Amino acid sequence: MDVPRPASPSVEAVAYFIVSEALTNVAKHAQATRAEVTVTRDGDVLRVTVTDDGSGGAAPAEGDDAGAGTGLRGLTQRAAAGDGTLTIDSPPGGPTIIAAELPCES
To answer: Which are the contacts of 13, defined by CB distance < 8 A and separation ≥ 6?
Structure first.
């Protein structure tokens, strides 16, 4: 972590939720041997990245794909609710990188 000053409690809660859900997905689905969490703050943006060396293929559920990827869809929605963004890069064979950028108050 490299966060010289804290974000607001609401931004910290979103960051915590993203890390928690991403690590849960690593444990349940990724068949990973390693995961890494990085948190940095650059000006008014908190960046949260969770990377694993697992099998890849993680994707948010879309349309009628009920059940599959709903946790990832929830992460995207949670980030967007605070005007943030969440990206998922998870090619088949891995690695998976989940990265969020969350705006902080000045």
So the answer is: none
pTM score, two decimals?
0.88
Distance CA 14, CA 30 (A): 22
In angstroms, the CA 15 to CA 98 distance is 12
Per residue in 32-83, pLDDT (tens digit) is 999 999 999 999 999 999 999 999 998 876 655 555 557 888 899 999 998 9
In angstroms, the CA 82 to CA 94 distance is: 29
CB-based contacts of 8, cutoff 8 Å, min separation 6: 104, 105
Q: What are the start-end ranges of the E strands in 12-79?
A: 35-42, 45-52
